[in-house]
Amino acid sequence: MSIVRIYVPCDASALSVGADETADAIALEASRRGIAIELVRNGTRGMLWLEPLVEVQTPHGRIAYGPVLSEDVGSLFDADFLQGGAHALSLGVTEEIAYFRNQQRLCFARVGLNAPTDIEAYRANGGYEGLRKALALEPAEIVAAVSESGLRGRGGAAFPTGIKWKTVLDAQADRPDDQKYIVCNADEGDSGTFSDRMLMEGDPFTLVEGMTIAGIAVGATQGYIYLRCEYPHARRALDAAILKAYEHGFLGDNVGGSGKHFDLEVRLGAGAYICGEETALLESLEGKRGQVRFKPPLPALKGLFGKPTVINNVITFASVPVIFERGADWYKNFGMGRSRGSLPIQLTGNIKHGGLVELAFGATLRELLYDYGGGTLSGRPIRAVQVGGPLGAYLPESTFDTPLDYEAFAAIKGMLGHGGIVVFDDSVDMAAQARYAMEFCAAESCGKCTPCRIGSTRGSEVIDRLVAGLDAPKQEQLLRDLCETMTYGSLCALGGLTPYPVLSALDHFPEDFQPKVAPVRVAG
């Protein structure tokens, strides 16, 4: 009898619900029955409500079962699940599950296929083909291809990646031997986001390859992954992948036999939300307190240690290999308008089917919330969603037909940000959510500028007076004036974007700001 390959995810989301115990139970039961198996710990497929998701390789494809707890293992063996046998937990062929089948997975295409740090499997599935093709080009041609693809930063600002890379490529052209850096912002701190973690834990070579291409493109020889310390599983996967990349000649003094040099290492951040802002991140990476820098100069000209620096987030770098593997023209055929390629969307909060969905730009919020998410877990109507992290706007049902597009979201005073969607049903108090935004800003402010540091504290106080009915019209105007000051007076996006959730809650859900008690009129 041939050895059957069984896949059990090893990422943090699966581990949190017992994946290790399930894997141990499968190994023990197979041994007890004298059955030879190969147990592969892969990355999650993104269907998190089904974790631990167990897959079995059969002649008919990979058959999925889930969620599989350790106590379910005996009955799975009894049902001959190693041959795809029928069971109450059977989900059919993984690729045919509707949630998974209808996606356009580009940077997440390999997540879940094999063990995350198996470099041979990575290469067998197209890995490092993008780097090979990039190495055949001149640096300016690499940058031009990224520009042609239409790739924009998959963080908050959605800045065109090619422009940033070209600025670094052209920097200090009179001193070509001067140091340049590649920095990955892996300080994933937005509420409702986990795509960075999922990719680093499930397919770290994609990030390593993307950063290597960036280094070759702009003439940088050193790269750093700035990783939040709360991601220990990602750190282990990245460290192992980097070591194997060195061993196989994809990092170091002779990248892919090209004679080009690129080194890469992981550095841990202490978990401050402000270090998701690129200049505060650079300060932290230099060993200083994470505070925002004044701009200009831009990091592309004077970044890490005062040298030209490309700084992008995980998903931006992870999108690069497929651009060169398939071609810029192929990549830009996904999406709409100026939003090209795909975006990993994370569905969280009060949602029935939470997980990660990667789709080309252009899908609507309604499609994501109902076709993929299945509506709320509570069964109550969806009242609001927050898109783009704790600084994103709260959007009502009337906006759910808005397509995922940077400009379309800007038109409704929203932002896509990192692609996180947090869902709320009709029991939510939107005034409390608005106050939370101000509280969050006050707690996470680096303290460098007054509008953010003081404005957020005053904002919480104003909202308290507003909902208490203490001269409500005056308090509402004061809150709007304060938000305007924060928007235009803050040094960075933390203070500048905090008004988005506050004003959106006030504009779309004004009834929640009505006094909870009889209104009080303040004399004078």
Automatic annotation (TrEMBL):
Keywords for this protein: 4Fe-4S, Iron, Iron-sulfur, Metal-binding
Pfam family, one: NADH_4Fe-4S
GO molecular function annotation: 4 iron, 4 sulfur cluster binding; FMN binding; metal ion binding; NADH dehydrogenase (ubiquinone) activity
Residue intervals of the NADH-ubiquinone oxidoreductase 51kDa subunit iron-sulphur binding domain: 431-476
First and last residue of the signal peptide: none
Cofactor: [4Fe-4S] cluster; FMN
Superkingdom as given in the UniProt entry: Bacteria
Entry's family note: Belongs to the complex I 51 kDa subunit family.
Full protein name: NADH-quinone oxidoreductase subunit F
Origin species: Hydrocarboniphaga effusa AP103
